[in-house]
Amino acid sequence: MDFEVRDRSVVRGRRSLTEERRVYLQLVQRGVSSQEACRIVWVNYRTGKRWRNGRAPSGQNVGAAPITAVTPQPGPSRYLREADRIHIADRLRERATVRQISAELGRSPSTISREIRRNRHPGNGQYRPHAAQARADARRPRPKPGKIGKNRELRVFIQTRLDTRWSPEQICQALRTAFPQRPEMHVVHETIYQALYVQGRGELRRELVRALRSGRTRRKPRRQAQRRQPRFSTPMVMISQRPAEAADRAVPGHWEGDLIIGKDSASAIGTLVERATRYVMLVHLPNGRNAEHVRDALVDTVRLLPGHLMRSLTWDQGSEMASHGSFTVATDVPVYFCDPASPWQRGSNENTNGLLRQYFPKGTDLTAHSREHLDAVATELNSRPRKTLGWETPAERLHKLLTA
Question: pLDDT for 1-42, tens place per residue?
């Protein structure tokens, strides 16, 4: 390759020296002296010396490593390479904007901004490409100690609430409430899940996985729920005819109901959830779950509530509500039915049933649970803070409505 001596009469000003650096290093590698290589590419001899030997330390600044020729790696890279960092440093010296640099490198502006912020010199704030590369390399090794593993106070706080069956998201919100000025005590719920599920972390006791409502010891991707066929063919009042005040949760007293089924479909527990407050009531069904048993148990439960807190009931098209007409006659509470295979129309109740499975696992005999135990479970659920209620508990929200 032939190189020409540049015209010294042209005043070039401040500009990127990336090409000059590349040519200089190639000349030196071919045996050309440093002084002659500097003359050919028209740079100061000290610049070439700095390219060849690195920057000497001055004051508290650590000298940079010698600069060597960087062999471009083929194809795009997920991470910034040393050549990218050299380009960033050159353009910053020329006072280019972050967006200009990102466009030149084909990267997101946030990538360039984060690179400069994380890898600049902690003292003087200058961005030096080789020191930045060293800092990035030092952070890369895995695994790293997690935030929970390094903070015993944080670990104890999380373990205590997992023992009482709080969800990771509830725990994260409680941490921000309890320690508003201590960011070292703040984590996101995914951090807790990682500490529980990722092997080898040891940050939380492995047995605490059993405290999660899913009961799984391994993470499982979400799958589409099984679609149920309609089983109820008697005349029904559909959810489309339900009052608008029930749909927007503006007025309390509109409930959603369902059954959770036990082993071999031989036992069940009724669940009622108030739409505005998410308050839960459990219906005891010790004698079975046919239409008459469910109707009688619902009538007894509804009569425990003030009239203004029982305005309507929404149910799916299960055969257990075949006696919905006589239930309405006995309680003066209309029953509205969801469309076939549309569980999202009773979203609050579906969510609550998922929470209750932590107490009443699938495949177990639900007749073993007494009325007192059902009341205790409902009380515990109603005492948990809910994100949808602004982290109030259902019991607190219901109490406000009753005392208003």
Answer: 444 444 444 445 445 677 788 888 777 777 677 788 888 888
Looking at residue 46, its pLDDT comes to 82
Q: Is the dihedral of CA 133, 136, 138, 141 positive or negative?
A: negative
Q: What is the DSSP-derived secondary structure letter of residue 185?
A: G
Is the Cα torsion angle 348, 354, 355, 357 positive or negative in sign? positive
Size (the chain), residues = 404
**DSSP-derived secondary structure letter, 255:** E
Which residues does the chain have with pLDDT short of 70? 1-16, 31, 53-76, 198-211, 215-217, 220-234, 404
Give the pair of three-digit tokens for residue 314: 């929404």
Contacts of 153 (CB under 8 A, 6+ apart): 185
Pairing mode, strands 254-261 and 312-315: parallel
Amino acid at 259: L
One-letter amino acid at 354 equals G
Bridge partners (DSSP) of residue 315 are: 337
Going from N- to C-terminal start, the domains of the chain cover 147-211, 239-403
Closest CA to 154 of 173, 175, 180, 181: 175
pLDDT digits (tens, 9 = 90+) for 223-242: 544 454 545 556 788 899 99
Rounded-to-integer distance, Cα 62 and Cα 121, Å: 10
> CB under 8 Å, gap of 24 or more: what pairs does 117-126 form?
119/85, 121/61, 123/60, 123/61, 124/61
φ and ψ at residue 119, rounded to 5 degrees: -115, 10
The set of residues, in sequence order, having a beta carbon less than 8 Å from that of 220 and lying 6+ positions away, is 214
| pLDDT on residue 283 | 94
Question: Domain 239-403 sits in which CATH superfamily?
Answer: Ribonuclease H-like superfamily/Ribonuclease H (3.30.420.10)
Among 320, 257, 260, residue whose Cα is nearest residue 293: 320
* pLDDT tens for each residue of 317-334: 888 888 898 899 999 999
The neighbouring-strand residues paired with 283 are 270
Q: How far apart are the first and last CA of the chain?
A: 88
Residue type, 10: V
- pTM score of the predicted model: 0.47
Phi and psi dihedrals of 256, rounded to 5?
A: -115, 140
Residues 254 and 308: their CA atoms lie apart, in Å, by 10
